[in-house]
Design brief:
The protein is an alpha+beta fold. It has helices at residues 17-45, 136-141, 179-186; strands at 92-97, 125-128, 145-153, 159-169, 190-192, 195-196, 199-200, 203-214. 10% of the residues are buried.
Length: 216
């Protein structure tokens, strides 16, 4: 666009001082730029060093006492006991020695009492005598012996009031190891009961010897 001027005004006239002002401005700018570049160069050329490293504080040496290692002696495990050999089975022979029980038949006297001559009196007769059990303690010790037992035979043929008169080893030494089994065997005895005038009656003071002997 063309610049309009008033009719009465005259256009500006280019004077020779204008280029001089421009040159001064350029020189000034060039100088400022040079100074900036110089300052940057000085900053780059500055030798920066790291701050000195501080040494750690000194620690006094630690003196440990002489340590003696403790040795614990361990005993070897105890040797297990040897298992004793098993007992060999022992054949046991238990027998009962029956007492002598006489059986007598007494004919009744014939008189004027009017008794039947068929009425008789008899002593008891053993029917069943089981063998006693051998005591385990006596068997383990190899003991033999016998027991004398006294008892009463009832009218039904059973046994009651059995008691031990004495128990002995084979060498005659008294012992009670056989007593209980002897009593148990006697309590199972069975008899034909004693008869008196044709009727069964009790018989007191009957004795038997129960023998305990191991088979050979």
């Amino acid at each position: 666009m063309e610049q309009a001027y008033p009719l009465n005004s005259t256009p500006p006239i280019f004077t020779p001082s204008r280029p001089l002002a421009l040159a001064r401005s350029g020189a000034f700018a060039f100088g400022i730029t040079g100074l900036l570049l110089l300052g940057m160069t000085q900053l780059i050329a500055t030798d920066y060093r790291a701050p000195p490293e501080e040494l750690p504080p000194k620690v006094a040496p630690i003196h440990l006492p002489d340590l003696t290692p403790t040795v614990q002696e361990s005993l070897p495990p105890a040797k297990p006991q040897e298992i004793p050999p098993a007992l060999q089975p022992v054949k046991v022979e238990s027998r009962v020695t029956p007492g002598e029980i006489p059986t007598g038949i007494t004919p009744p006297a014939v008189d004027d009492t009017g008794l039947d001559p068929s009425i008789i009196s008899t002593d008891p007769l053993p029917i069943y005598k089981p063998a006693p059990r051998y005591p385990r303690r006596a068997l383990s010790r190899g003991m033999e012996g016998y027991v004398v037992v006294e008892f009463t035979i009832t009218p039904s043929g059973g046994v009651r009031d059995a008691n031990v008169v004495g128990g002995y080893k084979n060498d005659g030494e008294p012992t009670t190891v056989f007593d209980r089994e002897a009593l148990r065997a006697v309590e199972r005895f069975k008899y034909r009961p004693p008869m008196s005038e044709g009727r069964p009656v009790e018989k007191h003071g009957v004795r038997n010897r129960i023998v305990f002997k191991m088979a050979e």
